[in-house]
Amino acid sequence: MTNRFEFKGLLAGAVLLACFSLGGCSWKATEAAKKAEKDKNDEKKKERGVPVEVAKIARGPIEEVITASNHLEAEAEVKVYSRTANLVAELLVEEGDRVVKDQVLVRLEDTDQRLAYKKTQSQLAQSAAEFARTERMFQEALVPQKEYDDQKGRLEQLKISLEEAARQLDFTEIKAPIAGTITTRLVKLGDQVNGNQHLFDIVDFDSIVARVYVAESHLAHLKLDQTVRIIAKSLNDKSFTGYVKRIAPVVDKNSGTVKVTLGLRDRGELRPGMYVDAELVIATHPNALLIPKRAIAYGGDQMFVYRLQPGRKVKRVLVTPLLSDRDHVEPVDGFEEGDEIVIAGQTGLRNDALVELPGDPDPNAVLEGDKGEKAGANAATTNAPPPDSSDKAN
Question: By CB count within 10 A, which of 184, 198, 309, 346 is most buried?
Answer without folding.
Answer: 346
